[in-house]
């Protein structure tokens, strides 16, 4: 652990774009706290000394209260509180508005380790190498209990919840090694479930990547699973028009999907996850509930890879190596996820 | 110096009947329907469980002296902090002030002979003891390691400790809390003495009214939540299990719906105590009585709408987070109003430095810091960083220990003469109050810094750079321990050796000081008729003792 | 509160049912009524946790819930609803007759209420045993042939938890009624002192109202959402 500075500090390192914003808010609050603490404590001490009891049976003149004072010390704290609220909300939005153009890293937590995979395929455990000055987006889930991904020096934290994906992002500003902690109690070795975030200069990062480049990317792995699990049998490109029994998957990611119930949902990571594990929950309009569940047949990592593959697909069959083979038979059919384009075909209910 | 009633020799020889000497058999205690005796029974109960919780805390602090985790195993450490939390929250803090002092004093303060449902009151003590002993049994038999928050799926599918047994203990004790709350609400509504209007009630009573509302409305939700956890563990109903279509975050909503208001169950009665003490030892009515009274109710109401601020990083929606944050700031306002009003009460008062007042002043300072650091945690963007770190630990210990425990000790010193009829050594009491204050700050202030540096809570081992602050904290904890052991010694000593207490050693105002110390079984000789407002201080000659003639009160202090 | 009359009433306040710590029967009645209402509020919060869970899962899986609700017996559920509403009527009549001091009618209506309550429980037993034969007991043996058995299991889970908790309250209610009948037969209640009957009435109506919510939520939800 000698990489970490061990001298006494009052503040953690500022190593991401978020750190400065959070610290500014922190100092504002420290200021408010100091002000009110000094005000009240000195008031108490001053009154206690000045108005100390001078004879055992004295009874001071009663004072019932003052509407003016009550109003002042209701309104001023209220205004201060609202200023904190607005500032806090602003920072919160910055923390959780996930940028689009980011380096996608997939994280799976399990008792008691973090497993990470880079978009280019490199896998790491309890250590994550990232480039400096580039936005990094983590898509996270867990194999067992709730964990929480916490990098104090970046001032970011997000719970990792079983059964769904959560996301967080950061943009590191300083090369170095930073603590990674699990912040949600997760059982016996909770305190050992941590590691290191290694922030590297872009060129170093490239060198590191190429030094570990023997693996397939998540999307490529996802494509393999897609074949092995037989998804291709039903999910043909072109969807129903191409004779497929399931909706076309190319290009649906991030788009609205019309459901049989008339609702519309956005096809995000959590929707795709649910559709694989629990296909009957949300049926795309015009299709019937014939897909079996894949619960228990795919691991959390395979699921993330399948989703990475679906994300990589485009209706034209462009985008990257992975999409090519699945979409090879229909480059012209540009029906864009069958269901949503036709505006809810009616009368096709079971 | 007072209107000592002239006793005939025969009368003086016969000791007057008090609630204490009304019966000496074990049965007369265990089957008592007297709210005062039930209060004492609770005092014995909560003291015992506080001791156990304190032992757990000691072991935790010793373990954290070094970063490696060499005193106890990880599993044991996890059990220690879990059991410390459960003991302190459910079996000490929640019953402490309401069940001990509320039970003892509330009927006297409103001029009633007893609470509305004395049998229910006794029953609630038995329920409490059953629940607490059940949980203790579970802890000694195998322990529980889920954290006092019982988050699934860890608590439901992964922990292999005594989760159900402990949960059942809390479930049972919850009904005691409900019954106490129900009893208080009905008592305050229907049992007030003639002339005791709502605005003449001591603020202690208002605070307990607000507390009782929370107990009655919140605790059933905790009960059903724990029941669901037990069912999930036994038959796997899937309600919190994502593999079966359930949602673990739903548990967090249900749990905090109770457990956030539960914080106010712990701190509102403390605020009531502090209002009494500040008024008595400043000899002035509480500044802005109605504001202080209604701020208690406001806290109780808003307290139910802020549970989501425990879940800003739990993947709940960003907009939900904003609403919860906004309402959390609304809760801060009534707390601020109270602090300002207490301070203003001291203005132009006649302030004495008796030990209860020292505790009350300590309370204001520490609760202030606890409350203000709550603003840090309610600030969405900042909470993301400090959530689940030692910052949170420090914050709630400032509120729970610096707030509730100091008020509990203050109450103990303030009403001890009334409850036992004895005075304690004041010099020792002041010294102990000082030791507690210093020890407490040294224990928990470093934890704010630790938290902002990023030390997560519930860590058995930690990175070496945090060690210095942990050592400071443990040093503080040992001082705090001394400060807590001292009162235990001199208070017990005073039971036998302390000077006899007069009916009103403080020249205070509440009806409890209008009866003798200790009070007779029926509290007053006749139903008092109240013609004065709360905290109307008058020369002692003018106040009438509505109890049996007190012991000759020549031992007046000051 | 009738505190101005405290001294006036003290002279007459020696009713055997008056507890020592109350000034008079009026105060005692007021206290016990308020206590009962507060108790019922805690009951609402207790059931509230389950209703919350129900609303969340139903909004997540509306179709599954609709589908699963078709496995419940609407006829039996409907009959039970009628039985329970009738029992509320007889309970209300019992309370009325306790107020006017008509002891024979009081006993008659208490017995009728008890019988209707037992009828409800009997029908519930029949329903539960049907579910058992159909293999719809979640956790223990659950064989559901419709789509999405997992979420259907949550529905059945909620069904058993909610109706089970309700049935438990019915059993407690039946016990209370038995006591009331015994004491009414002993002639303990009079127009001056009948709050036990009144409070038990409140409790009984509460349990009734819970069912009024349970019936549509569990049995009729299938008609609302197209399956």
Sequence-ordered SSE layout with sheet pairings:
The complex is a heterotrimer of chains A (350), B (558) and C (227).
Chain A: H1 17-50, H2 67-96, E1 103-110, E2 113-117, E3 123-125, E4 127-131, E5 135-142, E6 147-151, E7 156-160, E8 166-171, E9 176-182, E10 194-200, H3 202-211, H4 218-228, E11 256-258, E12 264-266, H5 269-277, H6 300-312, H7 320-326
Parallel strand pairs in A: 1-5, 4-10
Antiparallel strand pairs in A: 1-2, 2-3, 5-8, 6-7, 6-9, 9-10, 11-12
Helix pairs in contact in A: 1-2, 4-6, 4-7
Chain B: H1 9-13, H2 26-30, H3 35-63, H4 74-109, H5 118-141, H6 154-158, H7 163-190, H8 203-235, H9 248-282, H10 289-303, H11 318-346, H12 355-378, H13 380-386, H14 390-420, H15 426-453, H16 467-497
Helix pairs in contact in B: 3-4, 3-5, 3-16, 4-5, 4-7, 4-8, 4-9, 4-14, 5-7, 7-8, 8-9, 8-10, 9-10, 9-11, 9-12, 9-14, 10-11, 11-12, 12-14, 12-15, 14-15, 15-16
Chain C: H1 6-10, H2 25-60, H3 62-69, H4 74-100, H5 103-133, E1 136-137, E2 141-142, H6 149-185, H7 195-224
Helix pairs in contact in C: 2-3, 2-6, 2-7, 3-6, 3-7, 4-5, 4-7, 5-6, 6-7
Description:
The complex is a heterotrimer of chains A (about 350), B (about 550) and C (about 230). Chain A has seven helices and twelve strands. Chain A has about 350 residues and is of the alpha+beta class. In chain A, the strands form three sheets. Chain A has a five-stranded mixed beta sheet, covered by helices on one side. In chain A, strands 4-10-9-6-7 form a five-stranded mixed beta sheet. A two-stranded antiparallel ribbon of chain A has the order 11-12. In chain A, a hairpin with a 5-residue loop joins strand 11 (about 255-260) and strand 12. Chain B is mainly alpha-helical and about 550 residues long. Chain B is about 65% helix and about 0% strand. Chain B contains 16 helices and no strands. Chain B has helices at about 10-15, 25-30, 35-65, 75-110, 120-140, 155-160, 165-190, 205-235, 250-280, 290-305, 320-345, 355-380, 380-385, 390-420, 425-455, 465-495. Chain B starts with 8 loop residues before the first helix and ends in a 61-residue tail after the last helix. The relative contact order of chain B is 0.11. Mean pLDDT of chain B is about 90; it is low at about 1-15 and about 550-558. Chain C has helices at about 5-10, 25-60, 60-70, 75-100, 105-135, 150-185, 195-225; strands spanning about 135, 140. Chain C has a two-stranded antiparallel ribbon. In chain C, a hairpin with a 3-residue loop joins strand 1 (about 135) and strand 2. In chain C, helix 2 packs across helix 3 (about 60-70), helix 2 runs parallel beside helix 7 (about 195-225) and helix 3 packs across helix 6. Classes of the chains: A alpha+beta (about 350), B mainly alpha (about 550), C mainly alpha (about 230). Chains in contact: A-B, A-C, B-C. Chains A and B meet through helix 1, helix 2, strand 7 and strand 9 of A and helix 4, helix 6, helix 9, helix 10 and helix 11 of B.
């Amino acid at each position: 652990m000698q990489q970490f500075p061990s001298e006494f500090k009052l503040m953690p390192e500022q190593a991401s774009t978020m750190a400065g914003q959070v610290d500014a808010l922190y100092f504002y609050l420290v200021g408010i706290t100091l002000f009110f603490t000094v005000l009240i404590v000195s008031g108490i001490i001053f009154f206690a000394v000045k108005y100390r009891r001078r004879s055992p049976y004295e009874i001071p003149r009663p004072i019932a209260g003052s509407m003016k004072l009550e109003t002042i010390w209701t309104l001023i704290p209220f205004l201060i509180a609202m200023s904190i609220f607005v500032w806090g909300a602003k920072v919160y939005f910055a923390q959780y508005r996930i940028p689009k153009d980011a380096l996608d890293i997939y994280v799976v937590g399990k008792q008691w380790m973090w497993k990470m995979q880079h978009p280019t395929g490199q896998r790491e455990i309890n250590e994550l190498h990232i480039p400096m000055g580039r936005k990094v987006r983590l898509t996270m889930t867990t194999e067992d209990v709730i964990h929480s991904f916490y990098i104090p020096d970046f001032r970011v934290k997000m719970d990792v919840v079983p059964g769904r994906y959560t996301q967080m992002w950061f943009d590191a500003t300083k090369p170095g090694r930073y603590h990674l902690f699990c912040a949600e109690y997760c059982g016996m070795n909770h305190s050992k479930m941590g590691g290191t975030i290694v922030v590297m200069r872009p060129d170093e990062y490239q060198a590191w990547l190429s030094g570990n480049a023997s693996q397939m990317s998540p999307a490529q792995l996802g494509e393999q699973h897609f074949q092995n699990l037989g998804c291709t049998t039903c999910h043909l490109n072109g969807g129903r028009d191409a004779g497929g029994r399931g909706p076309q998957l190319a290009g649906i990611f991030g788009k609205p999907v019309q459901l049989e119930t008339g609702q519309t949902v956005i096809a995000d990571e959590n929707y795709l996850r649910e559709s694989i594990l629990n296909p009957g929950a949300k049926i795309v309009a015009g299709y019937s509930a014939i897909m079996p569940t894949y619960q228990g047949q795919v691991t959390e990592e395979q699921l993330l890879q399948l989703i990475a593959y679906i994300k990589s697909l485009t209706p034209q069959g462009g985008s990257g190596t992975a999409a090519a083979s699945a979409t090879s038979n229909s480059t012209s059919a540009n029906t864009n996820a069958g269901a949503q384009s036709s505006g809810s075909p009616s009368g096709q209910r079971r | 110096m007072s209107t000592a009633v002239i006793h005939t020799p025969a009368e003086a020889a016969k000791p007057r009947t008090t609630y204490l000497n009304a019966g000496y058999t074990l049965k007369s205690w265990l089957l008592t329907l007297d709210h005062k005796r039930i209060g004492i029974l609770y005092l014995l109960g909560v003291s015992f469980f506080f001791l156990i919780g304190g032992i757990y805390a000691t072991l935790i602090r010793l373990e954290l002296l070094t970063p490696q985790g060499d005193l106890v195993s990880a599993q044991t450490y996890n059990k220690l902090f879990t059991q410390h939390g459960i003991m302190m929250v459910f079996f000490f803090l929640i019953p402490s002030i309401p069940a001990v002092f509320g039970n003892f004093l509330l009927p006297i303060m409103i001029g009633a002979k007893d609470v509305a449902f004395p049998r229910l009151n006794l029953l609630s003590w038995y329920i409490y003891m059953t629940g607490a002993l059940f949980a203790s049994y579970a802890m000694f038999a195998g322990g529980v390691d889920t954290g006092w928050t019982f988050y699934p799926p860890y608590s439901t599918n992964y922990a292999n400790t005594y989760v159900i047994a402990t949960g059942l203990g809390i479930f049972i004790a919850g009904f005691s809390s409900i019954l106490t709350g129900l009893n208080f609400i009905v008592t305050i509504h229907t049992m007030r003495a003639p002339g005791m209007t709502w605005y003449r009630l001591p603020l202690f009573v208002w605070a307990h009214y607000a507390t009782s509302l929370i107990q009655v409305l919140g605790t059933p939700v905790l009960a059903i939540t724990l029941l669901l956890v037990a069912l999930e563990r036994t038959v796997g109903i899937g309600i919190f299990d994502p593999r079966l279509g359930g949602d673990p975050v739903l548990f967090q909503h249900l749990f905090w719906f109770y457990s956030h208001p539960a914080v106010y169950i712990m701190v509102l009665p403390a605020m009531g105590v502090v209002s009494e003490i500040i008024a008595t030892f400043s000899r002035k009515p509480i500044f802005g009585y109605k504001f202080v009274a209604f701020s208690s109710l406001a806290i109780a109401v808003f307290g139910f709408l802020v549970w989501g601020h425990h879940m800003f990083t739990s993947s709940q929606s960003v907009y939900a987070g904003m609403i919860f944050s906004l309402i959390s700031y609304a809760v801060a306002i009534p707390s601020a109003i109270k602090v300002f009003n207490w301070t203003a009460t001291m203005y132009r008062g006649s302030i004495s430095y008796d030990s209860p007042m020292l505790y009350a002043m300590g309370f204001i300072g520490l609760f202030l810091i606890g409350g203000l650091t709550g603003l840090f945690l309610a600030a969405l963007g900042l909470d993301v960083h400090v959530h689940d770190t030692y910052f949170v630990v420090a914050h709630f210990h400032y509120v729970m220990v610096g707030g509730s425990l100091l008020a509990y000790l203050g109450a103990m010193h303030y009403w001890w003469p009334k409850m036992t009829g004895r005075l304690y050594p004041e010099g020792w009491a002041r010294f102990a109050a000082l030791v507690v204050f210093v020890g407490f700050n040294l224990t928990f202030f470093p934890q704010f810094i630790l938290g902002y540096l990023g030390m997560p809570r519930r860590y058995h081992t930690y990175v070496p750079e945090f060690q210095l602050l942990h050592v400071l904290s443990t040093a503080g904890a040992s001082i705090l321990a001394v400060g807590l052991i001292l009162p235990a010694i001199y208070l017990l000593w005073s039971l036998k050796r302390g000077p006899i207490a007069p009916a009103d050693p403080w020249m205070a105002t509440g009806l409890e000081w209008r009866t003798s110390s200790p009070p007779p079984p029926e509290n007053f000789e006749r139903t008092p008729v109240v013609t004065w407002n709360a905290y109307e201080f008058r020369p002692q000659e003018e106040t009438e003792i509505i109890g049996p003639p007190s012991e000759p009160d020549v031992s007046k202090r000051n | 509160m009738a505190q101005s009359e405290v001294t006036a009433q003290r002279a007459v306040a020696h009713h055997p049912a008056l507890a020592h710590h109350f000034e008079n029967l009026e105060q005692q009645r007021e206290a016990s009524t308020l206590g009962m209402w507060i108790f019922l509020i805690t009951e609402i919060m207790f059931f509230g946790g389950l209703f919350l869970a129900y609303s969340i899962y139903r909004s997540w899986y509306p179709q599954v819930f609709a589908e699963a609700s078709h496995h419940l017996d609407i006829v039996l559920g409907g009959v039970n609803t009628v039985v329970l509403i009738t029992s509320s009527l007889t309970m209300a009549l019992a309370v009325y007759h306790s107020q006017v001091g008509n002891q024979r009618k009081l006993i008659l209506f208490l017995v009728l209420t008890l019988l209707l309550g037992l009828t409800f429980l009997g029908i519930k037993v029949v329903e539960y045993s049907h579910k058992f034969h159909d293999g719809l007991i979640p956790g223990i043996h659950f064989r559901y042939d419709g789509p999405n058995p997992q979420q259907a299991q949550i529905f059945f889970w909620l069904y058993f938890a909610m109706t089970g908790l309700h049935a438990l309250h019915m059993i407690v209610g039946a016990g209370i009624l038995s006591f009331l009948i015994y004491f009414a037969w002993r002639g303990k209640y009079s127009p001056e002192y009948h709050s036990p009957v009144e409070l038990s009435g409140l409790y009984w109506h509460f349990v009734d109202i819970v069912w009024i919510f349970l019936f549509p939520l569990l049995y009729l939800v299938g008609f609302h959402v197209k399956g």
